[in-house]
Amino acid sequence: MNLKTVEKFLILRGHEKYRLRQIQNLIYKNFISDWNEANVLPKDLKEDLSKKINILSFVVKKTIKSKDLKAVKALFELKDKNYIETVLLETSTKNFSVCASTQVGCAVKCPFCATGKMGLKRNLSEEEITDQLLFWNQYIKKEKLDGKISGVVFMGMGEPFFNYDLTAQSVKKLISPDFFGLASRHISVSTFGYIPGIRKFAKDFPQVNLAISLHAVNNLLRNKLVPLNKDFPLEKLSKALGEYVETTHRKVFIEYVLMKGVNDSRKDAEKLVKWLRKTAAAKYFTINIIPYNETVKRFKASSPDQAKFFESQLQMLGIAATIRKSLGADIQGACGQLAGKKANKLKKSKKV
Ligand code: SF4
Questions:
Q1: pLDDT for 258 beyond 60
Q2: 122 and 73 in one domain?
Q3: CATH no. for residue 295?
Q4: Residue 7 catalytic?
Q5: How far apart (Å, rounded) are the C-alpha atoms in residues 68 and 152?
């Protein structure tokens, strides 16, 4: 929803100024998904808006629920016929979290990730990013789900810091009481380690969580898993994270996708802890161990026992670590599985 377009539309038609505020509230507080639901507006304005203004900047092509009903994935068709996906996750009773996308595809091209395989097509606009959250609020209302969205993670398609300005504008709307009014600390932005982005983010959003998709702490391996590591190697990333912690005094969330025989040994755990301790004090890190969702054949998930072992090694070495529950794997809605229409087949799951 582009409020500037609405404002121009209202001025052109000679409507009073207060109508804009009414419309903003209808969209961002009442989460109407059809202008016919805008009961406070006069009939002719509702009809006019229905003809001229779309509430969402994309067309919703499909929503699919996971078998356990804890995750729903949505596929959107953008105006230029590109596709993006986003996921709603039930993280705890009455609490939902949205995994949002910031780009169509991704330039980082991690070989284990479905989005990475697409390459980068384009950045999403601020409106396209923010509308993902708007859509899920409308969805919760329509489906009468019990609960509300309390968090957003920018971990969907794309590298948020390669689309910094528009992602930042979206984050501001998520936080603003005039729009979604979410707590800064309930929003997380994930990067592979784009250092200029980390530095800017520390200044612009010291209260918003930073997550780093790390996966390995030796350059040889990380160059393979996260190809842009070649341009922003681990030594530079370590320095940037040290500075981030010094400036913000905030914890950094380390995302670590665990892959069988690749990065899941005792030695890997030890090296990981050593690298973190060199970067900053252990209290500044929480490691989210993400069991690999098998999207690409050449990578396999570590066994649940190995994941537990890896977690216990990290904890023993004094670093907070948890195995992240994988929600939505059966609908290709879990971490690293979002890819847009063509790359993803959504066969077995229940369509709603
Ligand atoms: S894992 Fe993240 S950074 Fe890597 S290709 Fe996928 S979306 Fe991009």
A1: yes
A2: yes
A3: 3.20.20.70
A4: no
A5: 21
**Nearest CA-CA partner of 108 in 218, 191, 197, 178:** 191
Own/partner pairs, 329-333, CB within 8 angstroms, 24+ separation: 329/66, 329/293, 330/66, 330/67, 331/64, 331/65, 331/66, 331/71, 331/72, 331/73, 332/73, 332/114, 332/293, 332/295, 333/64, 333/66, 333/71, 333/72, 333/73, 333/85, 333/87, 333/99
Model pLDDT for residues 43-100, shown as the tens digit of each residue: 999 999 999 999 999 999 999 999 888 999 999 999 999 999 999 999 988 999 999 9
Q: What is the pTM assigned to this prediction?
A: 0.93
Per-residue pLDDT tens digits for 98-151: 999 999 999 999 999 989 889 999 999 999 999 999 999 999 999 999 999 999
Based on the domain organization, do 34 and 137 belong to the same domain?
A: no
Same domain, 92 and 44: no
| CB-defined site of ligand 1, < 6 Å | 106, 108-110, 113, 115-116, 157-159, 192, 213, 336
335 catalytic residue (yes or no): yes
Mark whether 334 and 256 lie in a shared domain: yes
Residues of the domain holding 39: 3-52
Ligand 1 closest atom vs CA 226: 4
Which atom of ligand 1 has the smallest separation from the CA of 192? Answer: 3
pLDDT digit string, tens, across residues 299-311: 999 999 999 999 9
Same domain, 30 and 105: no
Q: Which atom of ligand 1 is nearest to the CA of 112?
A: 1
Note the pLDDT of residue 347: 37
**CA–centroid distance, residue 226 to ligand 1 (Å):** 8
> Do 35 and 174 lie in a common domain?
no
Same-domain pairing of 46 and 63: no
Same structural domain, 23 and 127: no
CA of 110 from ligand 1 middle (Å) equals 6
Pocket test for ligand 1, best of 102, 108, 292 (most atoms within 8 A of CB): 108
Which is catalytic among the residues 16, 85, 113, 143?
85
Residue that terminates a domain, selected from 29, 52, 75:
52
